[in-house]
């Protein structure tokens, strides 16, 4: 019998951790549904995204192991989504461990390990640090690199 797996997330700044998650989901079942958080829902959660919902949904939908992308518009919709799409497995990162145990009445709940050393939060922090470097400091760094390149030539 075919198994349907569902997950939820923002999927901002799509990275290798997202891809590994989606591939793991496809190994768990025959049909993968991804609920991508809308901009409005992220705002309610206090999250800022760099990439708008329609683009994030299009990126996730273009991944070969994803069968359906739906909008995540509220916390409460998980119960109705599981029922509507006849979901067998609800899977999400283990940073949410225990938060969705109440769904066990409806389907299997699986908390998956996150990919080491990669997260959207860390990428955003790195980007913020990079953008805070002054143009003068960047120019000096490039000048030093150019001198090193010449010395090695």
From TrEMBL:
The keyword GTP-binding does not apply. It holds the Pfam family CTP_transf_like. Signal peptide: none annotated. The keyword NADP does not apply. Keywords: Nucleotidyltransferase, Transferase. InterPro entries: Archaeal_FAD_synthase, Cyt_trans-like, Rossmann-like_a/b/a_fold. GO terms for molecular function: nucleotidyltransferase activity. It comes from the Bacteria. Residues 6-125 form the Cytidyltransferase-like domain. This is Glycerol-3-phosphate cytidylyltransferase. It comes from Halopseudomonas pertucinogena.
């Amino acid at each position: 019998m075919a198994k349907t797996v569902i997950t939820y997330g923002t999927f901002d700044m799509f990275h290798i951790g997202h891809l590994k998650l989606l591939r793991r989901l496809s190994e768990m079942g025959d049909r993968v549904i991804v609920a991508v958080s809308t901009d409005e829902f992220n705002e309610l959660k206090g999250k800022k995204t760099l990439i708008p919902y329609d683009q994030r949904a299009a990126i996730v939908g273009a991944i070969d192991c994803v069968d359906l992308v739906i909008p995540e518009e509220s916390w409460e919709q998980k119960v109705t989504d599981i029922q509507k799409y006849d979901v067998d497995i609800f899977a999400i990162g283990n940073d949410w461990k225990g938060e969705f145990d109440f769904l066990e009445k409806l389907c299997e709940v699986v908390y998956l390990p996150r990919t080491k050393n990669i997260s959207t939060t860390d990428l955003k922090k790195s980007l913020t640090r990079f953008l805070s470097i002054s143009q003068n400091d960047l120019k000096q760094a490039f000048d030093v690199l150019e001198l090193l390149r010449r010395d090695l030539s």
